[in-house]
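Now produce a polypeptide, keeping tokens residue-aligned:
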Amino acid sequence: MDPQREPADPVGERRRQARENAEYHHAAAARAAEAEARRTASMVAAFAEAMRSAGVEPTRLRARPYSGGGRLRTDVVGWYVRRDHRAGVGTDGRWYVLVVAPSLRGRLAGVHVEPGDAPLQVGAGGRDGDSVALKVLLRLRLEAGAGFPS
């Protein structure tokens, strides 16, 4: 485009530039999230192996509804990694967030929980004191062994 000429549609040009900027930032955020997921996946898998090697027995994990009020059975066997039981690691070496939508069916039959990507900073954006580096959280949980509250 000739820098001397005004664009025929300045509003359209601004929209195009805004769309390109948004696409660029979205792609950059997706690349960063993928890189973080690759880093944390190996940490979580190593934690599960270390727990098995240490002889810490896994348990059937339970999830909490968003609204509170009880705990729901899940199809995940593993170890809680937070004292509030909002996250756990399955024997499959995957990360599970154990907070789910409340449902009557879930209360009766249990809930299916999908594995997700573990964050590098667990609890980031939460209340003061809730945030801890994943590496530190997993190390402290491993050190607690069977003495961790269930």
